[in-house]
Amino acid sequence: MKTWILTYFLSLSCLVLFAQNELVSEGNLFEGEPYLCMDPNNSQHLVAAWMGLQFNNKVTIKSSVSTNGGSTWSTPIWQGHIVSTYSSADVSLGYDANGSVFMCYIDYDNVNFSGGKVLVRKSVDGGLNWGNPVEVLSIESCPNQACIDRPWMSIDQTSGPSSGTIYVTNVNANQPSIVVPPYHPYISVSTDGGQSFQSGLLDASGFLAGSVITQPLASPVVNADGRFTALYPSYLPSQSILPRLIRAQSNNQGQTFTYDVAFQGQGFGTTNSLVKAGPLLIAHPSNASQLSYFFLSDVFGETDIAFIETSNNGQSWSSPFRINQDPAGNGKIQDLVWADYATNGDLAVCWRDRRNASASGYSVPSEIYCTVRNQSTGVWMNDFSVSDQAVNHQPILEDSGNDFMHVILENDTLNVIWGDVRSGSLKIYFTKRGIYDSTNQIVRLPEPERMVFPNPVSTELSIPNEFIGSDFYLMSTEGKSVQIGKIESSLLYFESIPTGSYQLLIISPEKRYQYHLIKH
Question: By three-state DSSP, how is residue 414 classified?
Fold first, then answer.
């Protein structure tokens, strides 16, 4: 007979409850636009990179490594310029299936746009040291286009024949005096582990980006089956009288592409010129047919975080869905969105949020908010702040750029990195926390009158009636979700749960209770 032996205690090891925001960068003038990646074989090994002002070197790309899950970070190192007067920007990171980590960024003349390149560097020691830069794309290859802006890198980590292929998408710079329309997204591909790249236009006849959208930014991913996919905006009246979101796909490492329309109509973008509005496409790690696309939208009353998704490989896409859960139409604008799928399909979204500011507009205090959708139930958690303080606005946040952050959802733990100005200058901060703790406080011990019983029990657990209607989460000692639901009666049934140790978290409207359960 299976029985439960019930004990309870406060455990900080089963939930990463967190934590203060950790300072990652060390500069005192400007440190912004961070990116984060995690070793797929070691969740404690993190690599962060960002733009940082280096004395006598303009802005450079800096990076740091944590081997303890973000509790401490190595002294930042920085990458030299290919030309001493150049500046760097727009860094992204990614691992391949063999454990090498790659860094992609631009190094360019940021005054006259007379020269510049998209570069990739490789590290074989987890980001502690970086190899020589490899040219991905040169500004000289696209006269009157300045085609090296906003490079986004995606690496095939599957075990198939295209494993290790590196894709980089980018777009022309926002320089009207230099760039001549029509505008295009660009694609560069490496099939030799980043030793060389082949480049070309990503859009094509019938699916051109057009001459109205000045920066048709493409967001790339590699699907779970190894296909390359990117979404980019398009508006060309000869193709469609409505704006369109185009999907480009390749199943042969970028040799050829197929195209279709993911979305057509209004609802994308914002009229607010200050918000940081870069869109993001992400792919489900094990379901090749599921994609989610995040963007800013004004259709809900003010600038909000929205997304569309497909679960049938693009045969149909959902209508835009509003992510942030503050009252619609309250005048509080949100921006700076990033998202990530966990391996089990849970979906995390984070953004810069202004709901708690006393005034409206862009230039008000802000926090970093997140929410998570459970893959099994399809239900979104109440959104919550991961900042340990609201941060007053500084004018530097109104400058062009300063618009990247990053989130990684690993099992049931959020890893979030962003830049804010709490210290008086823009610096990089990191936090890690369990998704089932919506505060910065420790989960409370259960009180005696709120015990679950009997002890021992067989296949069902008696729950106090006051918990009916509350959410419960049963997790392994590693923090992985085992069973999630709502308590609908005074009994919970766990007969199908394997033998082992678990944590049962019950969230009532007033408190949170945590129990350690051992099932024989």
Answer: strand
pTM over 0.85: no
Nearest to 196 by CA among 240, 242, 163, 165: 165
Rounded distance, CA 234 to CA 327, Å? Answer: 31
Q: What are the b/e assignments for 30-64, b being 16+ CB within 10 Å?
A: bbbbbbbbbbeeeeebbbbbbbbbbeebebbbbbb
Question: CATH for 18-28+268-439?
Answer: 2.120.10.10
Contact criterion met (CB below 8 Å) for 271 and 297: no
> Cα(35)–Cα(154) distance, rounded to whole angstroms?
13
Instruction: Give the full edge-to-edge strand order of the sheet including 335-341.
Output: 335-341, 347-353, 367-373, 384-385
Q: Identify whether the C-beta of residue 505 lies closer than 8 Å to the C-beta of residue 10.
A: no
CATH class of 79-265: mainly beta
Among all chains, which residue has been given the structure tokens 């286009």? 145
Handedness of CA 422, 428, 434, 435 (dihedral sign): positive
The domains of the chain are located at 4-11+442-519, 18-28+268-439, 79-265
pLDDT digits (tens, 9 = 90+) for 438-461: 443 333 455 555 677 765 566 888
Fold observed for domain 4-11+442-519: Immunoglobulin-like (2.60.40)
Domains 18-28+268-439 and 79-265 share a fold: yes
Report the amino acid identity of residue 26.
Answer: E
Residues 62-105 pLDDT 10s? 999 999 999 889 999 999 999 999 999 999 999 999 999 999 99
